[in-house]
């Protein structure tokens, strides 16, 4: 996730690594790797003398990232040493682009198979530096803020957690009515199908299988479609294939607001794409 989010140049963004990671997180029942912990920041990686917080790394640009295809990234601030001082947290907070890139990473973590993990402070986009092995301190002013970036990020985390766990937002969007296997959030299960990884745009379906689906062949009917635009470009009308359906509900947009929740996206029944008989057009920012 890290390089795909932080690298300033779209041509060096390797979606294949993301695809392999997503598929690898869903190895099937009984597999030793099932239920792996998924994160984009940890106390080992986000320290100021290592990779640094994602928003801070995006803010600093490409000073430490691979310059050629095949070249590996690395410990951002550790490699750069004094040539790349850790940025001021207030400057990072003022960088809307950096926050939005970090938000995309949050979406990937919370919609991937496995067990999502957030580092303390990540729920309010805290970019203050800390050094390993000490973890980040708690900024109570940010944690209790009622407006601005901290409050917006806290709400984003709440919405993503609710969608994943089948909370109020998840029940409304996915039409979940009880706790039976057929009423689980599609983001809780192992089902994942990445059907588009092109032009810097990643799209995949998520679903949860009922416990007896291996015997009956009946899958959880509710699907979640995740679309992530990792480029610097805006797409007014991006064309994507979808399974047979009449419409889709917009559950969450990192570029939108709460008023966009449950907005219907109409499906074209007459135009197939990406191996599906139907398709949609969506705006990607």
Question: Can you tell me about this structure?
Answer:
The protein is of the alpha+beta class. The chain folds into two domains: 2-165, no CATH class; 177-284, no CATH class. It has helices at 2-6, 15-24, 54-59, 76-80, 89-94, 96-111, 140-143, 148-165, 168-174, 213-216, and strands at 37-38, 115-116, 191-198, 201-207, 224-229, 235-242, 247-250, 263-266, 278-284. The chain has a three-stranded antiparallel beta sheet, with helices on one face. Strands 1-2 form a two-stranded parallel sheet. The protein has a two-stranded antiparallel sheet with strand order 6-9.
Features:
9 strands; 285 residues; GH; two-stranded parallel sheet; 10 helices; alpha+beta; 3-stranded antiparallel β-sheet; single chain
Write the layout of secondary structure elements.
Layout: H1 2-6, H2 15-24, E1 37-38, H3 54-59, H4 76-80, H5 89-94, H6 96-111, E2 115-116, H7 140-143, H8 148-165, H9 168-174, E3 191-198, E4 201-207, H10 213-216, E5 224-229, E6 235-242, E7 247-250, E8 263-266, E9 278-284
Parallel strand pairs: 1-2
Antiparallel strand pairs: 3-4, 4-5, 6-9, 7-8
Question: What structural category arises from helix and sheet content?
Answer: alpha+beta
Total number of strands: 9
Percentage of β-strand residues: 15-25%
User: The biggest beta sheet, please?
Assistant: 3 strands, antiparallel
Query: What's the structural domain tally?
Result: 2
**From N to C, what is the helix and strand string?**
HHEHHHHEHHHEEHEEEEE
Poorly predicted segments? none
What is the CA–CA distance across the termini? Answer: 19 Å
Annotation field: number of helices: 10
Widest sheet, order of strands: 3-4-5
Shape: globular
Average pLDDT figure: 81
InterPro entries: A-amylase/branching_C (IPR006048), GH (IPR017853), Glyco_hydro_b (IPR013780)
Pfam family, one: Alpha-amylase_C
GO molecular function: catalytic activity; cation binding
Protein name: Alpha-amylase/branching enzyme C-terminal all beta domain-containing protein
